[in-house]
């Protein structure tokens, strides 16, 4: 086979390997993404817990970049300290070595079983999780198949004088080996793929054991560049964890590179097999970095904070704070970001409701314009959230995540409608009252204040239902809607009675009735969050709650 044919086969088999890794990652994300994120969030308390969580989550995901995105969702805005975040990355680097350890043994012959079993699970599975696990099995099978094909193709290099001479010249320069290996890991977005290629080259004797260990250093260095490059260009504080991760790799490579020969001699005593040698060095290197850096992490964190302070910007409430575009390929993180941004919409609506309540007592016409500007802020936040949700990788969504996306978007739409009711209806009534010097009766003001208070309470309850999916809170929210409707009817009837008896002016009464009607519309939008959850759980009949 000619050198060109060998290279074409090599590129195709590497692409198959990368596709297998992608399938495993997306399958795990769909099946267990929210669970893994919960585990990671619970572990971000101590360095040891964070380290172990990083090992476990990354072993399952086979992607330290995906783990880094999850960590960034917790560290955004200072919710989690940088020290446990750095500990997670030390663990993530160790986690990537475990799958390499497994694949360093001859397990290629089980790929037909994995692909067939995965296909059957994907086609015949009755639940979305079963189908996703089928995707994982197919991905693992494709990885093993690609390794089998790679080993056969790489053996052909021995018969190509051109390729043998090229590789021999490259292998003679350690710095070039590190650079090429790092570039491959960076382009592939996977140290696992780089390691498997290195192990295949070493097993075939195309590169020597010393060159293989040097390339392992390059693979570790290259995989640290992806999170670093993705974090560049935004808030300097966002780049702290990627820089810390990259710095530990650079230091480790700088120390290990001059010591490759004595390291090789010592490790050959454990297992002289070239493929296993590379895998073992990969694991030992990352474990050594974890042991070396986990204790001084607080000092490293202080240095990173000093080097990369938070960007101080003029506050613009309409600019989203949590919609991280780098998280769009990790649905569990992206949905969490969107939910956090929706809570900012809740705060904005709450501020508008409080202003609305005051404007039926006070005569400050300037506050009407202020509420209108606040509605513009709400509209901008809604537009940003809607665009963000539409940009999420929908192919990677599990069934539960797709439903979660729908719930978040529906809640945001309801909040935007509430803002429009306040701005275009209630503020028009408030402005009319102020311009015509109308005074609402004391008992009417008390009714309006009471209804506003209920709306504010129900708004917070609806936000709780969205965030925690609590059935009890959803039932209470729907029940409160019925009570609010009774209150609205009672208030409306009282105004009609006052109008018939001549105890209130017709214009004033009309304003009061319109206010009550609009507040009822707002309550309907708020309560719909509870309706949605109860319908999903089968606890809501067409017209009323079940017992």
Describe this structure as you would to a colleague.
It is a single chain. This protein is mostly helical. It has 2 domains: 3-307, no CATH class; 325-537, Phosphate transport system protein phou homolog 2, domain 2 (Methane Monooxygenase Hydroxylase, Chain G, domain 1, Up-down Bundle). The protein contains 21 helices and no strands. α8 (174-188) packs across α10 and α17 runs antiparallel to α18. The chain starts with a helix and ends in a 10-residue tail after the last helix. The model has no long low-confidence stretch (mean pLDDT 83).
Rg over CA atoms, rounded to whole Å, is: 30 Å
Order of helices and strands: HHHHHHHHHHHHHHHHHHHHH
Calculate the terminal CA-CA distance, rounded to whole Å.
75 Å
Number of strands: 0
Task: Put the structure in a nutshell.
Helix content is 79%, strand content 0%. It is built from 21 helices and no strands.
Key attributes of the depicted protein:
547 residues; Methane Monooxygenase Hydroxylase, Chain G, domain 1; elongated; 21 helices; mainly alpha; 2 domains
Describe the SSE topology.
Layout: H1 3-43, H2 47-61, H3 64-75, H4 82-103, H5 111-124, H6 128-156, H7 161-171, H8 174-188, H9 191-203, H10 209-223, H11 225-231, H12 240-256, H13 260-268, H14 274-293, H15 297-307, H16 331-359, H17 366-391, H18 399-435, H19 442-468, H20 471-501, H21 506-537
